[in-house]
Specification:
The complex is a heterodimer of chains A (about 210) and B (about 400). Chain A has 10 helices and 5 strands, in the order H-H-H-H-H-E-H-E-H-E-H-E-H-E-H. The longest helix of chain A has 21 residues. Chain A is elongated, with a radius of gyration of 18 Å. Chain B is an alpha/beta fold and about 400 residues long. Chain B folds into 2 domains: about 325 residues, Alpha-Beta Barrel (TIM Barrel), CATH 3.20.20.210; about 45 residues, no CATH class. A 7-stranded parallel β-sheet of chain B has the order 3-8-9-10-11-12-13, sandwiched between helices. Chain B starts with a helix and ends with a helix. Classes of the chains: A alpha/beta (about 210), B alpha/beta (about 400).
Chain lengths: ~210, ~400
Amino acid sequence: MADILDEIRSTLANLGGSQHLQDLVNTALSNNIGVSDVVEKGLRTGLQEVGAKYEAGEYFLAELLFAASMLDEVMQNIKPRLDAQSIHGRGTILLGTVRGDMHDIGKNIFRMMADAAGFGVQDLNVDVDPGLFVQESKQTKPEILGLSCLLTTALPEIKVVIDMLNEAGIRHKLRVLIGGNAVTKEFARQVGADAAALDAVEGVDFCRGVVK
Amino acid sequence: MTPRERMKNAVDFRAVDAIPWAENFYVETISRFVAQGLPAHKIAVVDWKMDSGILLNWPVFTGLDANSYFGCINFFGCMIVVDLAPIPRFKQRKIGEDSKYQQFVMESGARSRIVKKGSRETTWYAMPQFYSFPVSDKKSWERYKQRLDPEDPRRYPKDWDPDGYSEVLDQYDAGPTLLAMTGFYGFGAELMGIPGFNLAFYKDPELIKDMIAHWEYFTIESVREAVEALKDRIDMIFWWEDLAERHGPNISPKLYREFLLPHYKRVTEFLNKNKIHRIMMDSDGNTKPILDLVVEAGISGHWPLEVNSDMDVRTLCKQYGKKLFLVGNLDKREIAKGGEAMRNEIDSKMSIMKETGGYVAGLDHLVHVEFTFETFKEYADYLKTKLPLE
């Protein structure tokens, strides 16, 4: 069992291609290996390795996207066999780009990575009104609120959202993660966010830490 | 020295009387500066033209020249205009609308969503959200390729005449004469979107190979007439790429070497054969992991060197010496603060770059709206005292 799971991990980590990965997953499942083990010990461990290679400068954006797409294709095929716990067992992230900013590439990469890592992600898209972040936070009750911002001119919107969460009395119920080209660790401290992620991998690592 | 001579000498690592200074402004920044006291009548540019299409010379407003007012070079002040975009363009038109946004087909064929004008205060560089792209597979690429015919006579201006152009170019000395091109990564990302283009390196490498090979042929053949006629009267190539973000390049060194490098080399060899050696890459973000390959490709300069992305002229000049001239890298965030922060940022870099040469001073991006007219003027006044060499 360990061998095939390790091969799944390694195929994803080394970008061995969607079809090969699917074949290995099928082999594992037909050998009565539990789908949860395939996902957790094979696929998600492989994805974590991809993230580590990205952080180490061995992989770049193209590799990150390809790994996420390999994983996504396989997950789509095995979804019917997974229960909700296995699909989104790690918790929920509410996500969006702040008002005044229409950028979405970084946010979408984070969404793909977080989804693949087992989080349920509700994406409010771009140019999101601060009131909508608060309203959806009340309804969805996410563990993490992810605010993306590329434009320095839109940075004050992050503070607006955090202030509104405070006013609504729900700030303490979730962790605020900020990301995007405009944000820094210092800025996160200044506005009272819990963390600033300088890239998608760091963001997903933070989320993993929160729901550990 | 004229600004043009100063710029050419500086990027060639030859002696200069002062470090050249170049900036480019967002239109919105200039309009804010005007509202804050920049005299509009001193920067408005009016040319006599026949723009209305009738046989009548008439004064036409052609832009705002803030560069002359502040005393900095405009990279795009004198361009050799070869049209390297799709011909015919896609007709830009509105295809949808709701209370907040309008959807458009853009000239490149991409579809975008834009905040409705007047619905609230926005900046133009808030940029549209591009939600679909004209190329996604072999079939759509083959269709698009028909718009990228280098032989189309519309690629050159109506008044194209190499001798006449040469004469007019010789009268321009306020900065370099530039030929702008789109690089191999930038072109693909524009047509497929960044995620789509990046994924295709793994999912459809044959498509990438065909696209890149065509772009090499298209680029060389489109500019051939201008390059062979004007040769080194073209002072510099401005090669737009934007192939990196803060973490690093979007494309790995391995993919760059395998897919892009040979094509870059053939374009730079063609330019070099025609005595054009100043070839500058425009890319935001942290390009360091691929910079060796960029230099190997024959690219000899780099702008804007974002500090936020860990780019630093003081280390790059040691690493690359005379192989790479450097432009920009003054941290816009520190400079916009004004006062001591601004002076420290300038002082920390200017003295070193004066010694090494091969440097053009400037911000590490276009001039943003965070600047006020006063802070920019303060920056300009201080920087100009630091540019002259003893």
